[in-house]
Write a structure and sequence with these properties.
Number of domains: 2
Radius of gyration: 23 Å
Largest sheet: 10 strands, mixed
CATH class of the largest domain: Alpha Beta
Distance between the termini: 45 Å
CATH architecture of the largest domain: 3-Layer(aba) Sandwich
Number of helices: 8
CATH superfamily of the largest domain: Alpha/Beta hydrolase fold, catalytic domain
CATH topology of the largest domain: Rossmann fold
Strand order of the largest sheet: 1-2-4-3-5-6-7-8-9-10
Order of helices and strands: EEEHEHEHEHHHEHEHEEEEEEEEEEEEEE
Strand content: 25-35%
Structural class: alpha/beta
Oligomer: single chain
Length: about 425
């Protein structure tokens, strides 16, 4: 390994025994040291590897601004790479989370022959807790700052600057549009690795649907760069193929011009079985109503001094206990679908608010964990609401139960009103995709 400056941006270069060689380029805001084992594996497969600290991160000069410089800096890094005597002129881009964003921004470079993207940034669905975690621990300063998210939740003043806050759905649209245009234009093989347990699941599937030559694998992986399984994790985490091994074998085989023999893969939650099929949901699915049991009409009484809590995504939600600010309905019969479920209902609200739908998996032992959720604004007065939940593949075994929970906000994951509000909910329907791709 050698360290080289590339226009003020520092990179680690790993070279295989046989040169010249194609190069895998990873441009990272997370520090390069954690990628060294993967770099060693790739050089063993005959690939050169360039690991570069992004502008303003770790050893590189300048100031990091999320989404701002990755096309120009990425193209400059690829120009430098392909000009080296050890390069055969072909490059492959790889990365997790923001690294994947940086990779897509540079995908238009003429040297690029393939892109491997894992759990990419930015998320197309915005949850406040995930955005706060990214801005405190990941997306500000020169290095990662673990622990700041938990500190931020306990302080009246944020411990680091957050920029515009609270976030809005449009706060990431420019970056998302930039990536979409690069993916549509890229006529190279692409690998899309995602996790149903991560907020980036919808982003992974959307990007894969735009790609011309995509292989898509959706598992149940935990990544320290995209989400955290808490110490009190109640999820029955499935045994998945290692995502790094999937990505590295795909990169090595694609660079060698041989069939990587990695087909589509889809983990089905609940049953925790792997199926060799495309995990992308149908673009226009046929919806069916999943019968629900529970009160026909009930009220949600939101108290801003005690908002409905959102526990860490892997925690047991039964710890919250009975409350007056949730409508909980249960699905009758076996619950299974692939795609985005939707909750529809009539509402009567004392003031404008955000109605949150959470799909909860309850095991026979009584453990309850979040499968998926979504939110939609509601106006004061009477009307209807439709909440689209994040896509997922689910098949709950016999004896397991699916619950639909409706709340006004779900602090800190979804913003709750700062004043009391009562919302009456009636005629609730849960619609799920009826067929598979």
């Amino acid at each position: 390994m050698i360290d080289v400056p590339v226009g003020g941006l520092v990179a680690d270069v790993f070279l295989p025994a046989r040169l010249p060689a194609p190069a895998v380029v990873v441009r990272t805001p997370y520090g390069t040291a954690g990628l060294w084992p993967e770099a060693d594996a790739l050089t063993g497969a005959g690939l050169a590897v360039v690991l570069q600290d992004l502008r303003g991160r770790y050893r590189s000069t300048g100031e990091f601004e999320a989404g701002a410089d990755e096309r120009a800096d990425g193209h400059a890094a690829l120009d430098w790479t392909t000009a080296q005597p050890w390069s055969d002129g072909a490059t492959y881009l790889y990365g997790t989370a923001y690294e994947a964003y940086a990779a897509w921004c540079a995908a238009g470079h003429p040297s690029v022959r393939g892109v491997a993207s894992r759990q990419p940034w930015p998320n197309v669905t915005l949850a406040v807790d995930e955005e706060l975690w990214w801005r405190t621990e990941i997306g500000g300063g020169r290095q990662l700052r673990p622990g700041l998210y938990d500190l931020a939740l306990t302080r009246p003043v944020w411990p680091v600057p957050l920029g515009d806050w609270p976030p809005t759905p449009g706060s990431r649209h420019p970056q998302a549009r930039r990536v979409s245009s690069r993916i549509r234009a890229a006529d190279v093989p692409t690998l899309h690795l995602g996790s149903w347990y991560c907020g980036s699941a919808a982003t992974t599937l959307r990007q894969a649907s735009l790609a011309r030559r995509a292989t898509v694998v959706m598992g149940g992986w935990a990544s320290p760069l995209t989400h955290r399984l808490q110490a009190e994790c109640a999820i029955d985490v499935p045994v998945d193929p290692d995502p790094s091994e999937v990505a590295l074998s795909w990169l090595a085989a694609t660079a060698a011009g041989v069939d990587p023999r990695i087909g589509h893969g889809c983990l089905v939650l609940g049953s925790n079985r792997w199926e060799p099929r495309d995990p992308r949901p149908a673009a226009r699915p046929t919806l069916r109503t999943l019968p629900l049991s529970g009160p026909a009409s009930t009220s949600i009484d939101h108290d801003p001094a005690d908002p409905y809590p959102s526990l860490p995504h892997s925690a047991d939600l039964s710890a919250i206990g009975p409350r007056a600010d949730v409508v909980r309905l249960s699905a009758t019969g076996r619950a299974g679908w692939h795609g985005a479920a939707r909750a529809r209902c009539r509402v009567a609200a004392g003031r404008a608010a955000e109605l949150v739908a959470t799909l909860v998996h309850e095991t026979p032992a009584g453990v309850r964990t979040r499968l998926s959720d979504g939110a939609a604004p509601i106006a004061a007065g009477r009307g209807t609401a439709e909440i689209r939940c994040a896509p997922v593949a689910v098949d709950l075994p016999a004896g397991h139960v699916l619950h639909l929970e409706l709340t006004v906000g779900r602090h800190p994951r979804h913003t709750a009103p700062e004043t009391p509000v009562r919302v009456t909910v009636s005629d609730v329907d849960l619609l799920v995709p009826g067929g598979r791709r």
